[in-house]
Design a protein that fits this description.
single chain, 51 residues, alpha+beta, two-stranded antiparallel ribbon
Length: 51
């Protein structure tokens, strides 16, 4: 079995909650990751790859 993982890494809980609300409102995960994430994976829309 393979699983693909993505994330948006932020330092602040308030920012995380704002992003979560944007996701609930239908915003695009990859675009939000590119804008807000502090992880190098943000260049790939938060994609961490397949495990």
């Amino acid at each position: 079995m393979k699983i693909r993982a993505s994330h948006i890494l932020v330092e602040d809980k308030q920012v995380a909650e704002e992003i979560l609300q944007k996701l609930k409102d239908g915003k695009n995960f990859e675009k939000l990751a590119k804008k807000y994430s502090i992880c190098p994976s943000k260049k790939r829309g938060g994609d961490l790859g397949t495990f």
